[in-house]
TrEMBL record, chain B:
Stretches that traverse the bilayer: 12-35, 73-94, 106-126, 138-156, 193-215, 235-260
Pfam families: BPD_transp_1
Gene Ontology cellular component list: plasma membrane
PANTHER family from the UniProt entry: ABC TRANSPORTER PERMEASE PROTEIN MG189-RELATED, ABC TRANSPORTER PERMEASE PROTEIN MG189-RELATED-RELATED
Species annotation: Streptomyces sporangiiformans
Residue stretches making up the ABC transmembrane type-1 domain: 69-260
GO biological process: transmembrane transport
The organism's place on the tree of life at top rank: Bacteria
Main localization category: membrane
The protein's name: Carbohydrate ABC transporter permease
InterPro entries named among the record's database cross-references: MetI-like, MetI-like_sf
Amino acid sequence: MTATDRLPGPGQGSGSESAGAATDAGAATDAGAGPGLGLGADSRPGRRTATRAPAPVGSVRAARASRRRRRAMALLYVLPALLPYTLFAVLPALHTAYLSLFDWDGVTLPSFVGLDNYRRIGADPQLRAAAWHAGALIVFFSLLPICVGLVAAAIVSRRSGRRGTVLVRTVLFLPQVIPLVAVAIIWRWVYADDGTLNQGLRAVGLGRLADSWLGSFTWALPAVGLIGSWVVSGLCMVLFLSGTQRIDQEIYEAARMDGAGPVREFRSITVPLLRPEIAVALSITVIAALSSFDLIYMTTGGGPGTSTVVPGILVYRLAFGGGAVGLASALAVVLTAVIAVVVLVINRLAREKS
Amino acid sequence: MTARPLSSRIAAPAVIVLFLAIVLVPFLSLLLAALQPAGTPLTGLALPRGIHLENFAHAWSAAGFGVLLRSSAVIAVSVVPAAVLCATLAGYALATMDVPGRGKVYGYLLLGLSIPTEGTVIALYYDMRAVGLTNTVPGLALAEIGAFMPFGVFWMRAHFAAMPRSLIEAARLDGASSWTTLWRVLMPSSRPAVVTLGVLYFVWSWNQFLLPLILIQDPDRRTAPAGLGFFTGQYGVDVPLLAAATLIVIAPVVLVYLFFQRHFINGVLSGALKG
């Protein structure tokens, strides 16, 4: 979607606003005369009334009145969405930001501490560990699946016939559909002492590598990260495959004429032309990595020790078990801000390049 | 077609088969575990000794997943139609009508796309508790509707903006009100967009974990995924029973997905690309 599509054009926006201001002044008296004017005044009434100077004053007033009513009506249409969104998403987010300025255990009287909670986020080793783990999870949730997805899409798209695409897409998207709680349970079983992974290792004679993966200080974080890779890799591949269908086959043929091999093709054609899809995959997967509460809560709960603690887990623990609502709120605010910035930067980059 | 070396001809199918296997093997080990006799020690992928469906019966009644499923269904049925309706009305107005401060209103709604649940849930809990909405269906449903609005409005606005303007103008020339235009003229050809949004909302509502975990503390009113979370803590060791319970919880969402898979995939892909 382009910028012009999304926002009303600058001319239209400013025009209608000035017209709106003018309407407020004098149209209330003619409020009853409206509906007959219909279409003519509809899309850009501000301009129309301005260019049609000789029109009788009464009809101008009537036009303004009907326009005012239409604007009020339009607002009524938007209200059912604005109301729950404001009450149950925006205000709670602002309230969380307000709570972050207090030291509060959730029961006794809160005491105002200013930005102290934010300072503690920087200093606390557990909170720093959480930030570090979130970064590591981005590697597993974003970089790895995007690289794997790109290579896989490039290989698959070189084959011209696309038999069984629907079936393949349906299966690859499956991990996206089921609740992360269920994903976690599935993988707990894969990673269990007697689970599928250890069984597989023993079967190929690597039994001494078997481990209790989710309970290991070394392996728990990569093990959880790979679950994330499993969830989003299919999405990335399907996204990139649908992107490659947009690329003109003649570009590839021309490159082959010039003697480009598959690697060169991949680097110089596929990857650059898939830039919009890569941006989309990045923003979906980075958000998934940063808000990975469900998965961690159900697989390791942050352990062993603090080796898989992530911001979401700490928000939950501090607010609903640790009696540090203010600190948890500060952490939630930082997390929200980081996600907002990441989404903004990725969208900006994608728009500039495409 | 030029004869390519064997390696490049089998590369594509090989990659596809590898991906399919990676996705399906974990599912398969869960399915096989669910068919094992309850309480037996298991190892990874093993064919069950006979097919034991009693795990499913046990999970459904004794472990209470029948009840949990019903709570989840009640939430989804309250959230999905309401959220789709609100998003449709707002998307229609923002795409075709002269909403005061249209750009700002739309930008304000889009802002919500980057608010994670973690960012709202703490205050939501205390606010809802203050007005007695914790442990209630309306409380959780409203929280979900609020969180779902940004994407829905974005989706429906894009849909209505892409419809031919002449359709709307012709309807207005015939004297149709904005309400009639929406329901009689635009909605009949909007089914795919609406169904896609409904399917996405259903899946999101069903899979929501953090909100029910915190807003619903009463064990009898938990949703299925939250119940699964608690169940794991209690009976983490009985793998066949847990596997059966997991399959019961994911069954509705997987069925809806399989039935509407084209809608779901297109929704995720094009919804993302339009953003």
